[in-house]
Amino acid sequence: MPQLTYLEAISDALRVAMREDERVILLGEDIGEHGGAFKVTDGLLAEFGAERVIDTPICEEAIVGSAVGAAIVGMRPVCEMQFADFVACAFDQIANVAGKLHYRLGLAAPIVVRLPSGGGFSGGPYHSQNPEAWFLHSPGLKVLAPKTPRGCCSRRSPTPTRSSSSSTRTSTAACAARCPTGAMPRRSRRGPCAKATSSS
Fold first, then answer.
1. Which residues pair with 26 in a beta bridge?
2. Can you give the C-alpha Rg of the chain in angstroms?
3. Which of 1, 11, 139, 164 ranks highest by number of CB atoms within 10 Å?
4. pLDDT class for 73, splitting at 50, 70, 90?
5. What band does 130 get if pLDDT is binned at 50, 70 and 90?
6. Is 102 labeled as catalytic in the residue annotation?
7. What's the predicted TM-score (pTM) here?
8. Mean of pLDDT over the chain
9. Rounded distance between C-alpha atoms, residue 31 and residue 148, angstroms
10. May I ask the CATH class of domain 6-177?
11. Residue 103, SS3?
């Protein structure tokens, strides 16, 4: 396996998941034309189109709420919070809607919410936090955080599109709503962007 940064590995995992499952869609701020704040989604709009790589308004609650609705009807959404800190605005949709939907209504809402953090650029009070612990004890959710870039990527990954010489080491945590049917992308898709959850 080629040496990859976290960013390249996450991008690779997203690309593989989208190629293998047409139900996988991406939602987030500036993820299409601009390729995301850390360029993880760079090139995905050209490959998969605006129907699957969806630039959203600056409204984290709407991003996650839209993902929950899409998941209920069979899609496999991956939401990107531009910075992990911004997930606070979507807390209710993640913890009280997505996480409890199966308990309340018997519906699966298999979503992944990516929380980029730790970029090493001293982003100040709203761009430097690691809030994933807020979700650790929320029923119906799982928090995943890869220890190395290898934990993000697929074993069947294509050659990365970006140079592996990048020194950016942005880690990603993900909150994934519980999927009682195990219907998220298969186990071979590893990491927070492409591996989801199954009931335990």
1. 53, 78
2. 15
3. 11
4. very high
5. confident
6. no
7. 0.76
8. 78
9. 23
10. alpha beta
11. helix
Can you state the percent helix, strand and coil of the chain, rounding each to 5? 30, 15, 55
The residues near 48 (Cβ < 8 Å, ≥ 6 apart) are 18
Flag whether pLDDT at 104 surpasses 90.
yes
Q: Which helix (H) or strand (E) holds 120?
A: none
* 30 torsion bin: left (phi>0), alpha (psi -120 to 50), beta (else): left
Burial of 96 (0-12, 13-18, 19+ CB in 10 A): middle
**Where do the domains of the chain lie?**
6-177
Whether the CB-CB separation of 58 and 51 falls below 8 Å is answered with: no
Q: Which of 34, 102, 127, 137 is catalytic?
A: 127
* Residue count of the chain: 200
Are 168 and 38 a contacting pair, CB within 8 Å?
Answer: yes
Helices (H), the chain: 6-20, 44-48, 60-72, 91, 101-105
* Residue 184 one-letter amino acid: M
In this structure, what token pair is assigned to residue 190? 């590893």
Q: Do the beta carbons of residue 10 and residue 191 sit within 8 Å?
A: yes
